Amino acid sequence: MSSTSARLRVPHWSGVVPVLAVVLLAFSWGREGMAGPVVALLACFLGGAVLAAVHHAEVVAHRVGEPFGSLVLAVAVTIIEVALIVTLMADGGDKSASLARDTVFAALMITLNGIVGISLLVGALKRRVAVFNPEGTVAAFGAVATLAGLSLALPTFTTSTPKAEFSTTQLVFAALAAVVLYGLFVVTQTVRHRDYFLPVTHEGKVIAEDEHASPPAARTAMLSLGLLAVSLVAVVGLAKGVSPTIESGVAAAGLPASVVGVVIALLVLLPESIAAVRAARRDRVQTSLNLGLGSAMASIGLTIPAVAIASIWMEGPLLLGLGPTHMVLLALTVAVGTLTFVPGRATPLQGGVHLSLFAAYLVLAVSP
């Protein structure tokens, strides 16, 4: 591939913006009481870093193919997100006891209802019916539902501890289960049954690769992979940088403090959300579902073991059990998701149902 083609695949702005965003992050990290214009500048570069991350993720995905491309973006975002959670928990004391639970649950609602819902709606409106592979999708959703039940629902009902938290033995089991199931999921998705996670046509034919464009050169893909990592660091770091302003706005509006976590989760998962919608518009709904379900699986499969290890040196409780309201939302999501994914085809109605559950989560976060 010529150098001209490589430049077309990695535009100048997509390389400059992430680097400038990280430089800005380095200068603003740890500073409190930043002026309004500085916060506005952070927000602008945050948006630019999100767009750059989406672009570079698509370049990498085009090079390695599905489902590896979706896995790269999902794991990269989640690893940085987990690092942020552990850092905040280490600095937050008792007030951060429920941070991991709230963040993971927010990620589940965003991915399983927000990303899945908008992807199905866009895909179905474009082609009347959104088509995907039920074998891989149902398997991934079953793993997500199992880990969500073990890690978030079960702690509410255990009797070894007085609060919605695991005992040491139970936490070790939950962490091991998360690691094992996530490992099995990755092997299933990328090795043994990769064809279950590839996009399909309306006739059921597997689309092995993009038929409309040749993949980028290896050098271009490696450059995009590095810039993707830089972009994601900038997204998560700048999201944390603007969080004090978000907290002040939430407090001034009289909203619950948990709304801050929802806003931060929305910002962190924005690259995946945009990538999923763009894939659905190209009639690659399976790719969109890979992003949503893969992110949900990575969020639980990496966060729970990380906080389990971090709890060794952190003081205070680690609350993982959901409350009654969130338990109902999780149960509805599992039931509706099962009915949506089993047929392998979805109309705009299914997309609307998932988006309604996501809207209910947002409303209840604002008005519990």
In short:
The protein is mainly α and 368 residues long.
Question: Would you mind describing this structure in some detail?
Answer:
The structure is a single chain. The protein has 368 residues and is mainly alpha-helical. It has one domain (3-366): NCX, central ion-binding region (A middle domain of Talin 1, Up-down Bundle), CATH 1.20.1420.30. Helix content is 74%, strand content 1%. It is built from 13 helices and two strands; from the N terminus they run αααααβαααααααβα. The chain is globular. The chain starts with a helix and ends with a helix.
Write the layout of secondary structure elements.
Elements: H1 3-9, H2 12-28, H3 36-64, H4 68-92, H5 99-127, E1 130-131, H6 134-153, H7 168-192, H8 218-252, H9 258-268, H10 270-281, H11 285-310, H12 324-341, E2 345-346, H13 348-366
Antiparallel strand pairs: 1-2
Helix pairs in contact: 2-3, 2-8, 3-4, 3-8, 3-10, 4-8, 4-11, 5-9, 5-10, 5-11, 5-12, 5-13, 6-7, 6-11, 6-12, 7-11, 8-9, 10-11, 12-13
List keywords for this structure.
single chain, 368 residues, mainly alpha, A middle domain of Talin 1, two-stranded antiparallel ribbon, 13 helices, 2 strands, 74% helix, globular, disordered N terminus, NaCa_Exmemb, membrane
